[in-house]
Amino acid sequence: MKYRKSIYMAIFLIGAVLFSSCSGSGSIGNSSWPGMSVNGDTVYLSNSTVVYAIRMADGNLTWKFPAEAKTTTHFYAPVYSSGDQLIVGDYLNTLYSINPQTGAQNWTFTEATGRYIGSVLVTEDQIFAPVSNSNLYALSTSGQKQWVFEDSTQALWAQPVSDGSLIYQASMDHHVYAVNPRTGEQVWNLELDGAVVYAPLLDDGTLYATTLSGTLYAINTKDHQILWQSAIDSDGWGSPVMNEGTLYLGDLSGQIYAINSVDGSQLWKVEAGGPVVGCGNLTPNGVVFVTETGDVVFVGFDGIKKWTRSIEGKLYGRPAIGDDRIVVSIMNGENLLVAYDFSGNEVWTFVPAK
Amino acid sequence: MWDTIIIGPFINILLFIYNLVGQNFGVAIILFTILIRLITYPLTAQQLKGTKKMQELQNDKRWLEIQAKYKNDREKLSQEQMKMYKDIGYNPMSSCLPTLIQFPIIIGLYQAIIRALASTPLELLGLMRFIYDGVQDAGSMIPLNSSFLWMDLGLPERLHVPFLSFGIPVLAIVVVITTYLQSKLSQPATTSSNPGDQSAMMGNMMNIYMPFLMGYLAYTLAAGLSLYFVISNVFGILQYGLMGKLNWKNLLPKGNPKVSGSNQQKAIDTKKLR
Prior knowledge:
The complex is a heterodimer. By secondary structure, chain A is mainly beta. Helices cover about 5% and strands about 45% of the residues of chain A. The radius of gyration of chain A is 22 Å and the shape is globular. By secondary structure, chain B is mostly helical. Chain B has one domain (about 1-255). The interface of A and B includes residues 22 and 28 of A.
């Protein structure tokens, strides 16, 4: 009888463990695709437990942070480079300041109770950090909290943008907020038709924001009126980039669009070959996008595809441009980074040492 | 296949209800749970039939004879009991069947809840792929509002009060209590106290271990799943109540147990001796 009881007890315990395992992690996920940014001759890559600083010229590692990776810390937000410090947040509610030369930690900020999904914005004397707990934090450049903006009702994934007088924060709660950078008070807000994942493009007093409902908005920052809105074929993830009055963006159905920034009319569209989950980036001769199916697509400003390169793995986010190189970060691939020249020739690859 | 058959439909039904009830995910889970209970009602009814058969068996002359004859030979007793179960068409597992059937539903629902409450870009992308095109407007719905009362449905539930440094797992406690209540109240009123009676033993085990198992799961997993457990248990009790099958006496301390099985035989023998 006791033996049987022990058997049943063991069955229940094993069942509890198995159930917890089969059901996935305890509560929330802990991974996403790498975040990437460029400053001068260095590419910064936030990937899993480490932030890498890699030389743009040859793909060699300069340093990694932290020197000894901790399994509990995950970095996916792009690094923001601000002269004498790098600012990056992790998935465990910590914002780090890092020395760009050595990769040493300067300070941390741990008061936010959420993840850093998007990049921060740094102005002359302030840091603005959007957090997944729906708050926007303003810090001094030495990491002291100044104010917290709490009007958003959903997570903040988009990097804030600024025209020098106001901070514009797009939110997953379908709103764009204008915030006074000194006081943290809301100046205005505008409701859109869907969540905004990426930082809107700010150009000459107009915000261009893409929503997950597949609408591109042009918003006048002075009177927060919608100048125009343009529907794209599918859900829009990334924000547009602009060249000489034309906006370029991709969508999840795999289309790349060129849109007139004045009236929102579509100039052309071209097939990317896979979902575009991120933004494009500008080169002197065209726009480069990456697709989830592993393609790097270079499109001329006239809508003609110049070249496509296929990579093993999934490509998300925005390709980095610098030093006449196009650098793409790869998820689930053999390499972590690949760099091409503007003609599509592979220049180097980066694989972190194990 | 699992995603196509279980997760996809679960997510879309949840989102449909979510939209219908003013974008409240907690209420969507509650209504979804009730829907699941209604769909699995035939299993519950089957369980009750089996329980009734078992009750009748307890008073069967042949059953009592077997209990007396093989009281010192547990293996033989179990064999004879199983023969009798076959004869009357009763499966001892039928009392566990509704619970066991619910396990894939629970796992599917949990995965659906976690995917619906996507908290990273990769997860959100994954969620959007599950939403049926043309049926629901994914772009306007997501991300979902995960707040319900004091909880974040995507995280383990804790109620934080000012004077305590730790959170109280209120839902986990309620899950333990309601699971225990449902097990006890739905158990037949007369239960054999024969130590060789496997079905009774299994039933007693379930009453003890199941509440703690469910409580542990509620403590460690997302609050959305705990909410499902609570509503499922409460609705189960209500179902039994509406069928007139609740046995409130099972909640009372056993001061004067009704005799049955070998105890009844002892009573007969004792009477004969007088």
